[in-house]
Here is the input.
Amino acid sequence: MPEKRYTVRFEPDGVSIDVYREAENLLRVAMVAGVHVNASCGGAGTCGKCKVKILEGEYDAKPSSKLTDAEWDQGYRLACQTQILGDLVVEVPVESRYEKGVLAREAGPEHVLAAARLGDEYHLVTPEPAVQKYYLALPPPTDDQNVSDLGRLGQVLKREHDIPRVSTDYHVMAGLATALRDGDWKVTASVLHTHTSRRLTRVEPGDTRARTFALAIDIGTTTIHGALLDANTGEEVARAADYNSQVSMGEDVITRIIAALKPGGLEGLQKRAVKTTNGVLAELLTKAEVDAGEITHAVLAGNTTMTQLYLGLNPKYIREAPYVPTANFFPPVRLAELGIKVPSHVLGYVMPCVASYVGGDITAGVLACGIHLDSRLTLFMDVGTNGEIVIGNQDWMVSASASAGPAFEGGGVKFGMRATYGAIEQVRINRENLEPMILTIGQVQPKGVCGSGMIDCLAEFAEAGIVGQNGKFNQDLASRTDRIREGETGWEYVLCWKDQTQLDQDLVVTEPDIDNLIRTKGSIYAACSVLLKSVGLQFTDIERIILAGGFGRYIDVEKAMAIGLLPEVDPSTVSYGGNTSLTGCKLAALYRDKIEEVEGLATMITNIELSASNIYMDEYVAALFLPHTRMEEFPRQAERLAAALAG
Ligand code: FES
Here is the structure.
């Protein structure tokens, strides 16, 4: 848990909350504290509804035309435009808070502000990368010491660095004579260390050890992320990302496999991903002022389909029962041969896959989080277009991929969108008048709802009685608020009126949206349930949960439990791992023993094919409820719902 910085007290209700980040936004803090402040524009500063009076403390607030001079002088500020710089006492005026300011729920989940991170905190012991540079001063040949150039280099490597047998790439041999003589017999030799062999990958004139860089690449279905690392210090010298240009050939892995099977499809997809990677690489090199020739090696990870597409391997059989990938382990690949703009000496290590739908991004994630080294029973979850799940510890691991559907990434939801600017990421509903309080990413006017916003909606709708546990709207409430109404596709709730959005229509959440979200969360929970049952355990045995991927970033874990997406455990045991796939690549790029480790853990994971499970369907159907038909698995939520009903 990060260190507490400030405390904010909201009056007149006397609700206090600790703040963990410098310059945290006041509206965001009010939301976490469960203090209802009107917020109709997502925090863009345009609706003027989030007016609060700051009674005491240090803060920084932007001026606003929504406040009169007199109000400003009295201490009124827009909460969404205020940053907290010290302990604060804030009064929420009547017009900003409706009749009852504090929602009837438990104290806010501080961990949302704390944003605990794992994985990025790898230990910066001196790197020992798979490709290591050695500076060698060779004795020049003489009449009686005239062994070959390669033989001479091999003798010095053995004598000075205890590297007895080195195989050699042909292209190294091709330039060897010139490199040795250009360097006046003083050269830098790059050697690839695997657990079974040593291979000479490059010989350069002079001493180039000071400039040694490694590349880590996460090949996501939606985004390609790259990090450039100083292989001497372990420091990340640049990071860049871009949308995978394969998106134009299909949003998810299944449509990409279908596209790959068309004439020229596989080649087109491979080239697109490489083109995006080259853009990311160029940005990394420019940012860090590094030359591509200074990169010694790379580590790449992607899900199984992305890996195969990237390597130009036909993905057809990934999609057909019995769902067999071409390979789970890959030999080092010369990146230039794939079209990546690096010199030919740069070899890429591709993270191993487990099965057709549990790929190198997951093994890299397990490596990054150290699940395979920890005795605690861990649930690792990466929710994207698929929900990939690993459960286990240092002794065993099982995995599954729930075909969750892209609902949490915006697919199949009327105003669904990815977590980018203008996406509603947090929602609270006032229990008295059913008015929403919304916050958008970037605090601009909303244009859609992202995954975390949808989770909030579902949880808040259920707790406010707007929808029943079956996900159907309570139509009787239409007489209490005009936000609940019958729209084109059935009943809906107006989250944001047209004039406060970037759209030309009201932003609504519909009943079909809710059905879709329930199906998605149901399939993920059911997958966890099947995995646990397969090893004779239950949810109460889980000791920690790690959420990975972009989706986990803004999730309010209490809400995710409230809807039955996550099992109801102690929220403090839930962490956000960030882009664990990239972190795993970084680790393997800096420490050669991590490559051995990831190969070991990939063989340790037993994948369970859900389509072949005879209990999956029953589990799935049981999970199509808010939070679940087995309410005994969600005692806290059961209590909350009962209290809401009674109140
Ligand atoms: Fe602050 Fe609209 S002005 S939420």
